[in-house]
Amino acid sequence: MNVVIIGGGAGGLTTASNIRKYDENAEITVITRDKHIAYSPCAIPYVLCGEVNCFDDIIMHQPEDYLERDIKVITRAEVLEVIKNENKIHYRLIDHENEPQREFNYDYLVIATGGAPFIPPVEGSDLEGVFKIRTIEDGIKIKEYAQKSQDAVVIGAGLIGLEIAYGLLNMGLNVTITEMLPQIVPKSLDPDMASIIQEYIEKKGMNVILGNPIEKIIGETHVEGVLFDDKEIKADMVIMATGVRPETKLAEMAGCKLGRWAIRVNEKMQTSVPNIYAVGDCVEVYDAITGHSTQSPLGSTAVRQAKVAAKNIVGIQSKFKPVLNSMVSKVGDLEFGAVGLTSISALQNGIDVISGKSRALTKARYYPGAKRIDVKIICDLKEKIIGCQIIAEERVAERIDTMSLAIAKDITCSELSIMEFSYAPPVSMVIDPIILAAEDACEKLKRLKKIN
Q1: Is 42 designated active site?
Q2: Mean pLDDT across the chain, nearest whole number?
Q3: DSSP assignment, residue 135?
Q4: CATH topology of domain 2-33+53-114+244-313
């Protein structure tokens, strides 16, 4: 069996490793445009802020490591064409443009092309000092340029924008982060929870501009400023953290059907072309709560999809389930996470909700070092939990994972409010903040039922 995988990110390499796990004889070739492989783009901001020493530290494997497992990885190579009827791809080495095209035949093709940064069509976006952020190479360029800059503007206040902005702030720059929507982290948090993070970063010295799209990047040859609503913000550099768009060109070339957002796959991660699979940011998935198609541009999603694809390619039945898009992040000392729907996205999907909230501590009140924690649980009017958001300086990830399980198992807020949680003064309150939020949701539902 000959398998060709296009893309050397989490999805592509995990697919390769798992095919090898189940099939010792398969010929596996991974082709990627990147110079570096087996690293997490999510780690780039933490190199900038100094929490990780250098970019080399976030590279976990080299092509030679995969070759030891008889997996061939070709870096700095671009696939130009997929010839479906011949089960063949053509590619070229990026640094050897004068060489003739090369080709590979395949029995199975896996498209793991990820997403490309979206750069808004803004005047001045081609100036020196404007950066996208997706690869280690992007991170290196940003760090080098930041070392000779004073003022930075980050366009986009999603996860990566917020993390990059804080990294630059920690490097000593004056940082402004902007978002065209009226809140930061709009995909994962409700405005009341997002305001907690905004207050934190503003106290750290970051300037936040909301509800204003960028009008123009000012400068002759390099960045000198950014224009918002006729107001100019001084800047030496601009980071476009404006999201990514799925890379679907090769899938279209191969005749794979697209969905609303990206490549359409079935629960086996198989495209409409039977011997072509797709994983990662380039595919669309289904939301576990709404049942609608959506995107899940998370490394954790790509890895799970890759395991499913690999099993099915080698003949082991496996299915990828709809997603809850569980996420967690850290900015400075503040951790925040979310799973499921926000109140806003629930209403957009026609789901009436109530929210239970608690503000408590991460440890017993008298124990030294106890940190504030904010929890918000979103329930539908039948008590089913459909979302959760948590902000604290510690122990957010495990609570988000707990809520992910609760939502996946259709636990109601009343059931959650009486569940057993562990307790010890150095690590928890006697009543966990999750329980307190669930109790608040139950009380609000009772009052709502009395009114109706």
Answers
A1: yes
A2: 94
A3: S
A4: FAD/NAD(P)-binding domain (3.50.50)
